[in-house]
Amino acid sequence: QVQLVESGGGLVQAGASLRLSCAVSGRTFRSSGMGWFRQAPGKEREFVAEISGSGAVTNYADSAKGRFTISRDYAKNTVYLQMNSLKPEDTAVYYCAVRVYGQSRTTPTDFAYWGQGTQVTVSS
């Protein structure tokens, strides 16, 4: 059974940093892209970042560029999201997922095996 478990969220002040982790168990996805999404209250789930199966290619939402860094550790079967210079508008539940369709679209429907999410709250 495939399971993705996110961790690392918390309550921080604006300008602080957090590193989110997504531990994958039950299967390895060495050839699959892995993505991070977030969902704020009353809003749709939105793309944050993705890393390719090889780890050589990354893609970020405009809101994340220059502040967030996605990486993956194949030995630990874990994907990370380093978030720096956090802003109150980054407040959301953050989810990781596996790309199962396509290669370029970044909609939630192209991803599967969603974790339960980890809450990130940034105070001003």
Succession of helices and strands: EEEEEEEEEEE
Largest sheet: 7 strands, mixed
| Structure classification | mainly beta
How many alpha or pi helices? 0
Q: Can you give the helix content as a percent range?
A: under 10%
CA-atom Rg in angstroms? 13 Å
Strand runs, count: 11
- Uncertain parts: none
**Strand content bin:** over 45%
Question: Quick recap of the structure?
Answer:
The protein is mostly beta strands. The protein is built from no helices and 11 strands.
Please provide a written account of the structure.
This protein is mainly beta and 124 residues long. The chain has no helices and eleven strands. It has strands at residues 3-7, 10-13, 18-25, 34-39, 46-51, 58-60, 68-73, 78-83, 92-99, 111-112, 118-123. Strands 2, 4, 5, 6, 9, 10 and 11 form a seven-stranded mixed sheet that branches. A hairpin with a 6-residue loop joins strand 4 and strand 5. It is globular and about 40 Å long. The model has no long low-confidence stretch (mean pLDDT 95).
